[in-house]
Structure prediction request, 96 residues.
Amino acid sequence: MVPFKGAYRIAAIAATIHVACVALTAWYISGLEQTSGQAVLLWVPWLFIDFPVSVLGYFLFDGQFFLVHAALGSLWWFFLIIVANRIVQAIRRRFA
Prediction:
């Protein structure tokens, strides 16, 4: 396996975009926290985006939103794309 070729490249791009979006959300929330007490609720959409990992991460990391979504969520999307690619390749080989 050559890193960052084919599906690895797509997965790395998806994980990088995910980290960037989480960082922008954290930056936006940090500015809003000074004026709004409900700014933390902006993390709720990320709960659904990173669903299985985010629920587990909240219990393991005691509600550290940025850590859960930036690290675990990005790894989740990286491996999700790799696994989906392998499943598609296996199906193609089976029916080819």
About this structure: The chain has a mean pLDDT of 82. The CA atoms of residues 43 and 77 lie 17 Å apart. The two ends are 22 Å apart (CA to CA). The longest helix spans residues 65-95.
